[in-house]
Structures are given as C-alpha cells and as structure tokens.
Amino acid sequence: MPAADHTQARPGPHRPDPGPGPLNGASHPDPPPPAPPGPPGPAHRSAHPPLRTRPARRAGACGRQKLGRIPDGGGWRIHGRDQRNHDRAHTVGFDYIHSAVDDHTRIAYSEIHPNEKADTCAGFLRRAAAFFAACGIPTIERVLTDNAWSYRKATAWRQALSDLGATGKRTRAYRPQTNGKVERFNRTLLEEWAYQKPYTSNDERTAALQDFLHTYNHHRCHTALGGRPPISRVNNAPGQYS
User: Fold this and answer.
1) Where is the Integrase catalytic domain (predicted)?
2) Whole-prediction pTM value?
C-alpha cells in the first residue's frame, strides 16, 4: 500500500487557498493596535449624541357627574329607603359637578352647577384655567372631554378653548375609560365627598366640597405620584398653599 501523502494540497479551481493558519503551521497575525483617541474639542463627535428633550405639554381633562340633590332634613341615607318620597312632583332635582384634572400633576378643580349647558361648561373651563394658573400651571394646550353636545357643537365652548389657546380633544364614543383620569377622580369624588357621610341638607354637602378638594390636592397621597399629593408636582410660591 502506498504511503499517505501528508503534503499540503495545492489550491485548485474548487479548492480555495487556506492561506496562513494552523494547517501550515503559521499563526494568526496580531490585531492592529487601537487608533489613538481623537483630539479634544468641538471637532470630536460622539457616536451617540445626547438626547434632546421636548418641553412638557400640559393637558387637562374635563367631565361632569350628575348627582341627586339632598332634601332638607336628609335623604334616604338618613331616613332609610322605605321613607323616600316616590312622588316625582316633590323631587328636589339634580346637581351637576363639573371637574377638571391636570394630566401631569393630577390637581383637580370642581364646581357645582344646576345644569350642563354650553355656557355653563365654557364658564367653568375659564375658571378652571385660572385656578390652574394660580397653582403654577399657566398654560393648557389640550382639553379632553366626552362627546356631549356642549363639547362637540357649542360655540361658547369652542370660543373658550380659543381664548385659552387650547385644542379640544374628545374620547372615543361609548368609551369613557379613554378619559380615565377624570373618571377615576369622579369615583373618588363620590366615595370621599358625596357619599362620605350622611348629609342633612344639600347645602351641607355643597359646603364640604372645598374641604375635599383641598385635601385631595394638598394632602391625599396618590399611588401614581409615588405616594405624594398632586401639589408636590408643581412649583409654588412659598407660603402660597398650606
């Protein structure tokens, strides 16, 4: 049997040249030394330039909560459901609680009105904007609302938005959760103010609203804010709030 030929095969048309390497005893060449750093100063550019941040846009959400008025002497929460007067001619009607919530800070502002007409909504928006400005939020860029007629078609509402330099946005139809912040505030409003205790009159409940709003904005801890109250997210003049 002929001896095996251990010589290196010559490159052919179907056999690429292996080049220098372990098969012929040559080692891989050392990698080239790193290039010297560029000169300091403006001429040196980083491969990853710093991010540019945009100024925060301030948006607010508006909504309404319909609430039955309390007759003098108290309603069914004091006297029980069986003692209610079922005669519609003697009902005391409804209040409409208009509320606005700042998207960033969660600061809330509310007013009680006997209706939800366009002029009422427009006047409320202007006063809410003035309240937010006093809290250190001078500009409102967008206002998110539901699809009520007063927000969709009313000239008074559109004029109020124009005067504030804001854009009106509306939620998707039949999707109130789109306006989640004000919907969540309305739940808190009912639990911690409207139904917090049995009131003996509608005036008593109305008078308690301002105390609730102060507690909500200045002292109530919010999970979404890291356990801090909304007022902690704005820069206030010293002593302006207590």
Assistant:
1) 67-238
2) 0.68
